[in-house]
Please model this.
Amino acid sequence: MDEDTRLPGQHQLRDRPINDSLLSRESWKVFQIMAEFVEGFERLAQIRPSVSIFGSARMAPDHPYYGLCEEIGYELSRAGFSVVTGGGPGLMEAANKGAYRAKSPSIGLNIQLPHEQHANPYQDVGLSFRHFFSRKVMFVKYASAYVILPGGFGTLDEFFEILTLIQTGKSRKIPIILVRGEFWAGLLDWFRERLLDEKMINAADMDLVSVAEEAGDVVEQIFAHYGERGFEPSPEEREIMLEL
Model:
């Protein structure tokens, strides 16, 4: 490689002047991030038990997944769970709409995006975030279960986030329920045929995920997971959640 085209060495970078204006902006971002965490913790700490629901923002109200998601939101709210979504359109709207019709709070964790995201009107509590990472903590921190309907990259991001946190012990074990097995079959087969066969995950990791087809299945699986222990975290789980 030509000497002139190489990246500068560390000694050269140290000699470059610091852009004080840029550094100041970066430093002050810390307070904006802190404010998002503080507001989220204060507003959401009292909503337990809650279930976080994910799915595509692009599903219209006449799509079968929309009706199913609305029913899931309704049944969970009726059963006493606060319903938490990303607060946007599509299946997020459907879950909030269902919960809004029942007795428990309907909550939206909205994200500011250049396109696609706008807050749906079915929220008892609505928070707005600039940063995906602080918003993702709020989805996990107070959730008693994750319910994941068909969706795109954002839905998959949340799915893999909670899988990783539970697998590594950074989050307490909660139900992760994939809705509509046919949609998820290819991904789960790939988990078994590639990740498991090549020993990139353990067999027990596959047990972190279950599949449900209808709203009633979702509610039953969540209650079955907790049995008679109740939804309040144990002292050990509280310590895990504190360090999340």
Summary: Residues 176 and 208 are 7 Å apart (CA to CA). The chain is about 50% helix and 15% strand. The radius of gyration is 21 Å.
